[in-house]
Amino acid sequence: MIPLRWLNKLGVRPTINLNLLVLILENVSNLEEGSAGTSTDAAKTPAGVPPATRAASMRTPNSNFSDRSSRSSSGPISSGSVSSGSVPSGAMTVRSRPVSPVYWRVEGSLLELTTVRPIAFFTWNSQTFIARAARRSLVLLMALLRPFLYAANRVAATRIVHAVLRGITRDRLDLLGEEEFEYKLKPLLKEDGVRQLKALQATGAEVVLVSQGLEHVMRPLARHLGVRWIIANRLDFRGGVATGRLLSPVIRPRGLFARIREAGPDGQQSPARWVRALGLRGPKALASAIIPAVRVESPRVRPIVYFDEERHSAPFSVRKALGGKRVMLIGVTGFIGKVWLANTLMDLPEIGKLYLLIRRQKSSPAQKRFEKMIEGSPVFDSLFEKYGDQLGVLLAEKIEVVEGDVSQPDLGMDPDIAARLRNEADLIINSSGLTDFNPDLRDALAVNVDSTYHLIEFIRGSDHAALLHLSTCYVAGQRDGRVGERLRPNYTPSGLADFDAEKEWYRLHDLVELAEARAESSEVTEELTKQALEKEHAAKGLSGQALENQVRKNRVRWLKNYLTEEATRRAQELGWPNTYTFTKSLAETLIAKNITADGGGLPIAIVRPAIVETSVTKPFRGWNEGINTSASLSYLLGTAFRQLPSNERKRLDIIPVDAVCAGMTLIGAALVERRHDPVYQLATSVTNPCDMGRSIELTSLGHRRHYRAQEGLEYWLRLRMDAISVSKERYNRMSAPAQKMIIKSIQRAMSPLPSAMKKPLAKTERNLERVEKLVGLFEPFILLNEHDFVADNVEKLSQALSPEEREVFGYDTAGLDWWEYWIDIHIPALRRWTYPLIEGRPLEARAPRLLHMPQVSAMRPATTTTTDDGDAMKTGTNGATWQYS
Asked: Angle 579-595/501-519 helices, nearest 10 degrees?
């Protein structure tokens, strides 16, 4: 936190938010009223206040600080004025505590709980095998010493028993607590006690469950019974990891006489009894110990600060900026494009017209591709539900499909159509791109660089059109540290002084031409012919036309492999991990030279999303598509593969696709009003960091929840195979590389045996090779290069919205609860939409639906260009997208 005197010296006069002051004073009051302790991780969280309640702050007229719900105060605060704003709107108003609570003891009336049993369950399911063995030994020791410890002091004994949980994360305890209740305690609930509790709730009583169990077990019980508040034993956490210390008040186990006295189904007990039992000072201290029966995350308060940049005082409205405007979307068939289109049609009916640039396939015109996409994609389910049979009429009114190819001059459109759209379009959104990490250089140049050049030339011919260009945060390349929202022409991560991106672009095209000429040379033809004759398959012994056909196929393969390897080599030589980030950076330089005054001052904004993943709310909860970074890695961690080489402190920057689309809408509106910045990063590594260590554990916990609900030995084994973060040396010594060497040694020993007996080993070796390649491909993102991507510019736009518009169009990544996102949303979405593709299975069957469109003919160019390879491309980071959209 920056001292206030520094801000005063620099001329900053922040006004304190009164609601934040109320929260702080309430905490202090709670601590003074009694000995109800507070966890280090939740030091600023009033007991019993759910996140939504904490977010429901009122805005003071003179407030300069933006109280965004956030986990920690990330990022420095320097000189400048602080943006005005309030917390995210839409938060529920919920009382922090019940007004007239009725305390109900769980033990005796609902369950017969012991102290050691849940602790033993937690320790036996630690993340690593070594931790499991060590903690099991400690639990056994505790079981032996417990009678003596309880005889001496039951409160101290309870604290000592819980100390064995030191080092276990809150994420793991929360999931294991749910599992303990669902599969072990729920079947043991006493029906008479549940009936009496339900009868009490029916009278309107505000019940508070009190138990000696940990909050991680009691919360699922309370939610099952419909109870909103609990008092339970709570562990202290630092950095999300248990310190082994119990917070006050400590609820000790019942004594022998209390068990006899409280054996009936009625668990009601007076507040005075609990004040005495817990050693509190009075009813207020008891009330302060009440916590909600839902997960509570500490709020993150991170002010938005303006430096020397221009600050816009005029109100900002998305509806006003984009109302009646004409927007061209390129890349609508991709993951991001589809979601943006669906959200825009749902949330922004004021928009004037949407032009969708779609490439014609050999047998499918653009209009047919569009209609098929609307009919088949789940993204548009909400539109079908809202408009029914009238959806076709709405689409015909709002949407005009244009056939074209963004990698061609004039975007591959007919000259008359291109001239008309130059005059009509107010904004062009380019969400297309080839996101394979290491594709054929020809494809990467055409889609990621050439198309950018043609878009720049297209808007240069317009007197008012603006361009929103989608790039990636990872143009930063192989470097560490904080990555600001700054555009650096001719940038290379290696720091090459005389690098010229435009000359590099020309050089790469020359490389393609030379490679194509070399592929036709007699030297290469002779080598390819030799390979065709020597290869052990059906081509052996071929001659004549059959041999020529095989050589032609080999030539295509040779050229593609050569250009792929050369592009990867050049990218890594300059400091980028792959061709994808290399070509995206070249495109940014082309843009940088055209947004300055010398370059014509074109209205262009570069949007850099991080790793785009599953949606949170829009178009619906849990939408994902294609095989992307998280999908392949998370699928691997759900198998017997356990040791992932990664830097557990490195932040894995994942952002939901609906947050990206919200940011794109804000930036598009800012472009139309010419209040935009050159670069916007959409990322979470600064606003809401989640490191690799936590990401790996959350992935394993997500798989655990799925496997726990299955039956069979395979799932029982996978349930106990938690993935862990390891060093590269340990991975090489104990994981896939070492296992592959063992398999090869066994194969050499079995070489005299028939080939049928060696097939399983050969298959295992191929699988291990694929694992090695996958891990090597993603090492720059999980092991190397500790990036922290600043995303302040889009936050400023979001805070400038009115509270009503912020509810619909606001951008908020600080409020993400990663536990809920990963376990409740992301992993289930991958299992539904992505893992079947990895396993070669079809997606779940959907009821067919028809889109009734009025007769509309797409605007077609005189000639269209198509590619010879497939239409769909698997992506590296941003989901599935078409090669040319």
From this structure: 140
What pLDDT, on the 0 to 100 scale, is given for residue 743?
87
Pairing of the two strands 466-470 and 787-789: unpaired
Q: How far apart are CA 413 and CA 433, in angstroms?
A: 18
- Per-residue pLDDT, averaged over 488-507, amounts to 93
| Single-letter code of the amino acid located at 842 | P
Tokens standing for residue 80: 């400048």
- The pLDDT tens digits of the residues spanning 679-694 come to 999 999 999 999 999 9
Looking at per-residue confidence, does 877 or 709 come out higher? 709
- Average pLDDT estimate for 19-38: 40
The whole-angstrom separation of Cα 81 and Cα 790 is 18
What tokens appear for 429 in the block? 């959104």
Using DSSP, state whether 328 is helix, strand or coil.
strand
- Band of pLDDT at residue 32, cut at 50, 70 and 90: very low
**Residue 182 has what DSSP assignment?**
I
Between CA 618 and CA 130 the distance in angstroms is: 42
Kindly give, in sequence order, each residue whose CB lies less than 8 Å from that of residue 702, ignoring residues fewer than 6 positions away: 634, 822, 823, 826, 827, 828
Tokens encoding 656:
């939901």
Alpha helix (H) residue ranges in 34-70: 51-55
Instruction: Kindly compute the dihedral angle of the four CA atoms of residues 800, 802, 806, 807, in this order, to the nearest 10 degrees.
Output: 170
Strand partners, 590: none
pLDDT digits (tens, 9 = 90+) for 661-677: 999 999 999 999 999 99
Where would I find the beta strands (DSSP E) of 713-834? 724-726, 787-789
Nearest alpha carbon to residue 614 among 441, 829, 824: 829
CB-side exposure of 204: number of CA atoms within 13 Å? 2
**Strand, coil or helix: 655:** strand
Percent share of the chain, pLDDT over 90: 55
Per residue, the 3-state secondary structure of 716-738, as one string, reads HHHHCCCCEEECHHHHHHHCHHH
Lowest pLDDT segment from 65-79, 171-185, 452-466:
65-79
DSSP for 668-733, please give it.
Answer: HHHHHTT---SEEEE-STTTS--BHHHHHHHHHHHHHHHHHTS-SHHHHHHHT---EEE-HHHHHH
Amino acid at residue number 192: D
Gap between the Cα atoms of 186 and 228, Å rounded:
18
At 369, the amino acid letter reads R
The answer to whether 604 touches 591, Cβ cutoff 8 Å, is yes
Q: What is the pLDDT of residues 140-186, one digit of tens each?
A: 888 788 788 877 888 888 999 899 999 999 999 999 999 999 999 99
Closest CA to 443 of 3, 133, 836, 874: 874
Q: What are the tens digits of pLDDT across the range 621-636?
A: 999 998 866 788 899 9
Per residue in 304-346, pLDDT tens? 676 666 677 788 999 999 999 999 999 999 999 999 999 999 9
Say if residues 228 and 149 touch (Cβ distance below 8 Å). no
In DSSP terms, which residues pair with 788 in a beta bridge? 482
Residue-by-residue DSSP string for 346-394: HH-TTB-EEEEEEPPPSS--HHHHHHHHHHH-GGGHHHHHHHGGGHHHH
The one-letter amino acid at 514: L
Q: Indicate if the pLDDT at residue 789 is higher than 90.
A: yes
682 torsion bin: left (phi>0), alpha (psi -120 to 50), beta (else): beta
Please state, in angstroms and rounded to a whole number, the distance separating the CA atoms of residues 205 and 202: 7
Res. 28: pLDDT tops 50: no
**What is the DSSP track for 739-792?**
HHHHHHHHHHHTTTS-HHHHHHHHHHHHHHHHHHHHHHHHHHHHTS--EEE--H
Provide the token pair at 797: 């736009």
For 3, phi then psi, to 5°, come to -60, 145
Query: 614, 816 in Cβ contact below 8 A?
Result: no
Contact 539, 528 (CB under 8 A): no
pLDDT of residue 747: 83
Enter the pTM of the model: 0.84
CA-wise closest residue to 332 among 371, 278, 285: 371
